[in-house]
Amino acid sequence: MIQPTAFIPSLLPGSTNNTTTTPTHVSTKSTQHRSRTSLRMSIQPAPIFNNAIGVHALVFSGELQTDKGCETAVAGASKAGYDLLEVPLLESISVDIMRKKLQRENLKVSCSLGLSFEDDISNDNLEIVKKGETKLLKAVQTAAQLGSRVLTGVTYSALGKYKLPRTKKGVENCVRVLQRVAKACAQDGIRLGLEPCNRYETNVINTVEDALDLIAMIGNPENMFVHPDIYHMNIEESNIVHAVLKAGQAKRLGYVHLGASHRGYLGSGNIDFPKFLQVLVEINYQGPLVFESFSSKIIQPQLSSALAIWREMWTDSHDIASSARKFIDAEWTSAIRAVQSTPKIRSEPW
User: Is 172 a catalytic residue?
Assistant: First the structure.
């Protein structure tokens, strides 16, 4: 975990120094009184940033059913210095083995999943919708057994390319199911997330605003949150900063995925990470920062096809995970320092 860091907004935003000149017609005593008053008014409690830095298990292992698969993921995350492992709830996962290994390495855990077209809760067909609800409710139980307080991902539709736009009936089905799933999550102390994905991976939620709208349709459950992924935001959002601000102002920003624009090494590609991280600092984001990347050398062929992993951006799990951890540490610390020196929301176009 990054060492807790406090930032104190500069006393005079935009100024390069705090030197002032007292006008000859103003008494020194009066000026000193106003200065003390100004200092008391301008100094705000310094936010402490102690965000968990996480990594997706599929960076290390394409299966989590066997002891070997679980060990590869857990040991890999621990060796690379992460605080949290995001565990995708695949069709088969060894809960007992995974939980014991996470406890051994003192790793926090979050859970995620993506529905398929066979159990898509945004489908018009109620039989398919029912399968999706069953899958989600089972995922809630699994997350609780693993000790996770988060269930997120593509929890609202299939993860894949749709041929047609979403339908009114499909959205209504999605809303009804997620109302029940959110209640089930609340009973186990779990927060339910919606991860907006690009248009080639879903037709239901592509932007942060889409996610906020769906949460409103569900009835604004307290335990629901938006889970932005910078990889998808880079494709779909017209202004990434505004999207983050909107989620922050709605108090719905609960989980963040960090990934390169081409699914490769963080710091390569075309994403402006400093600006993205700075706005997270400015809204006092306290949730996890989780690295996600995929290689067809690691993940199963079906998922590789769904995510369109057609070329290899990396093959060495430890190398890319360690590189990402160092990158996040450095850039998050730099973002905090940048906001400290210039505490202003950067709302210009991305």
Answer: no
pLDDT interval class at 296 (50, 70, 90): confident
Contact 276, 244 (CB under 8 A): yes
Rounded Cα distance, 338 and 336, in Å: 5
Render pLDDT for 308-331 as a digit per residue (tens, 0 to 9).
676 777 689 999 999 999 999 999
C-beta of residue 287 within 8 angstroms of C-beta of residue 50: no
DSSP string, 188-241: TT-EEEE----TTT-SS--SHHHHHHHHHHHT--TTEEE--BHHHHHHH-S-HH
Residue 198, both tokens: 């690009």
**Two tokens, residue 149:** 């307080």
Q: What is the dihedral of CA 181, 183, 186, 190, to 10 degrees?
A: 10
Q: Which of 209, 236, 292, 331 is catalytic?
A: 292
pLDDT by residue (tens digit) across 246-265?
Answer: 999 999 999 999 999 998 99
List the one residue out of 97, 89, 222 whose CA is nearest residue 148. Answer: 89
Active-site option among 86, 195, 237, 331: 195
To the query of whether residue 195 is one of the catalytic residues in this protein, the response is yes
Q: Which stretch of DSSP H or E encloses residue 14?
A: none
Q: Taking CA 328 as the corner, what is the angle to CA 323 and CA 334, rounded to the nearest 5 degrees?
A: 130
